[in-house]
């Protein structure tokens, strides 16, 4: 599904990623762990095409297509979704209008007609329940006045609406209390299908206990220094990231 | 960076935005010679077969205008206007009058069809009567008969002068006297056509009334005059739309709108102004210099101005309210969008004279390109206006770094019991907001439209439904090419 080859990238001239190789197959959930500044968010931003980052070398293909030549919205239409670490507020734009614009943009790219109003509202109702958001959601402005937990639930809600084939969760667990973490994680698990895959970025084991990733990568200094199974999360929990620095 | 550049290229490609209404109509038009003097004023009056009192009104206004200098206090860079190089009367219906069949030239019908304003009643939007004005003349007013059954008068001001001279004489110039300002004096001297509305006592007007103004002829100015009188306990919602062809030279539009609201009556006046804004280098475009004022004469009367201003090279106007009647309430809702080299200096005046009067001002300015966008507003509370209240909220949204937003609020409060509040914000559309939309699959142009419409929502919600949809589209189109 996603194949990253020898990726180098920088922001404002500063090199952050130094030769990333990563392959995620259909149906797999990978976790990416690492300290602040290791390049985790840089990698996720590059996959979704954030304009501030510059790829200096390497390639990313998604289902065989060259991802780096696509605009951010084209990547979204291909089925890539990012749950933002800090979702931005858009005052005055209701979730209803926002989601309809997003869904219809995708349908347009697929050559489909806009979604009928009743069908859309039904979908909104169904999907918000997955993350236990109430019926006021539809008329609230995008993320405006949302608590930290609500913002993260709203990200997973949008994922439920857009049904991506590949989702990135960028520190979706940060700032969540135990209950909100459970809601978000269970919501994510409900949305999983045999063919969909994900990349989960986190510092902690907590979220991974719920999501049960197949493979865990450790990112240090812009390079993946260790790759293993679920046991890696436990190793980090017990002995921190230092053990891998020696390895690097 | 590569991705950013791609995004900006897409924006640049659509930067040369198309003005959808820029076509011209090829129709025989009777245009009087350029220039302005007493003979021209007399000629206009004569062409319209006006009574003596109206000619006198025009001549007084003209003589007064001659003593005035064009004002310069606006936050505007006005091109010089040569008032002798403008034709003050252009009649595209002249042929119809000469063949006396009374039928409208099919070219004119086609023009209004193209503008989405069908003049055949069977094709018209349900629930909306239209007075269609091209250049100096009203082409047709629909649904007149149906409105007449309720005693409502809706016709061109030219016809009203003949058919209802007493009403016109009583109210014309009573809200905006010809001595009001330079452009009001000019309009009073040479005004051509516009609409007249009278809603009798106790009548709730069953349909939206609307006037569509179209400038077509080259080298002419449009000087329309609208007069709306809502008698006791009546209600009317009135809409105004405007477009003009793309021309290299500036065209002058100097209108007057007067509204009289009697006891417990309510008037809603909505404008979607989309005059040709000039090209992306600032060449051409309409100079929109308008005096609009409502007089809330009766107790507990209500008036609201809602305007969406996206067109014109220069917009300079302050739809205002004089709240004389005790307990009267006035509202002003405005979205003014400027792009490229457009300039706007607009806002309102709320003059509180009666007791317990209340006014609300919601203004949303949006500036893009190299445009300059100014909100200017006056809240005045007179000595006797006990318990007067005003709430003003003025927001500015900037797109890009080469445009300007300015706010000049004036307050003059002479009564100690008055409560006057003013809030102002300035914000920018952030890269993060745009990227968030992009990541959800929403392309850049649509994202800008979405965010701007969200920002203007409080005002757009005040427009009648059909207009609101139109205005939303207009905001999106007017901003094409504004981000990058």
Task: Describe what this molecule looks like in 3D.
The complex is a heterodimer of chains A (248) and B (484). By secondary structure, chain A is α/β, with parallel strands linked by helices. Chain A has one domain (2-247): 3-Layer(aba) Sandwich (Rossmann fold). Helices cover 38% and strands 29% of the residues of chain A. Chain A contains 9 helices and 12 strands. Chain A has helices at residues 40-48, 72-77, 95-109, 117-130, 148-162, 178-191, 205-211, 231-239, 242-247; strands spanning 2-11, 14-24, 29-33, 53-62, 65-66, 80-83, 90-94, 141-142, 166-170, 197-202, 215-220, 223-228. In chain A, helix 4 (117-130) packs across helix 5 (148-162) and helix 5 packs parallel to helix 6 (178-191). The two termini of chain A are 27 Å apart. Chain B has 484 residues and is an alpha/beta fold. Chain B has one domain. Chain B has 13 helices and 23 strands. Chain B is globular and about 65 Å long. The two termini of chain B are 13 Å apart. The model of chain B is unreliable at 1-17 (pLDDT under 50). Chains A and B meet through helix 2, strand 7, helix 3 and strand 8 of A and helix 1, helix 10 and helix 11 of B.
